[in-house]
């Protein structure tokens, strides 16, 4: 049986890669331009292998029906005959590698029921706040950020003339720096402010915003985080990084918190 290739050993241009990994993230990459009516571009996701390496996968729209029922977030697979394509010209992708694995018509997906149990179901690569200005570029690389929630605004229209709705939030890092994030559409609407408010009455709430982008505000010069179709939000995950935040803030003081309900 042909062996699999580790994600770190794949190079751009390989056409028939065979990998063993867990799908830890999965989302529909959507074109949010109103003229296209939120059209699907591809089904994208993140693979995590036994070495802890990550790589993005992409199922082009034309193969959506062929593969959408074969992939499930959290499951481990052997995926054969995928192409490692260059991501330098790609927008809204993670930069874990210099390639992404693109599905083809002859790609094969084999679900594993026992093998891969040791591969975690989640892995995150946090971007420090001070690096966000470097990420505010046209290609909009996807980023993961973490912080203590210190402000949650209302879900409302972006302006009096806009048809788009959003919710602004702010998080604070270990250095007491504050970062604003804008949660557009469903991410702003589904953000559970009641749960956050309840948790905040008992202590701090640590949020992870995975799959956001950084944007330079033209008039203010401030860096703003923004949700994307890849965004997933986690509250108070049981991981070492969250515990580090909890310990740090419990030793100093609770984070000032404001919420609109």
UniProtKB/TrEMBL annotation:
InterPro entries: NA-bd_OB-fold (IPR012340), RFA1B/D_OB_1st (IPR003871)
Pfam family, one: DUF223
Ranges for domain Replication protein A 70 kDa DNA-binding subunit B/D first OB fold: 5-110
Name of protein: Replication protein A 70 kDa DNA-binding subunit B/D first OB fold domain-containing protein
Source species of the chain: Aegilops tauschii subsp. strangulata
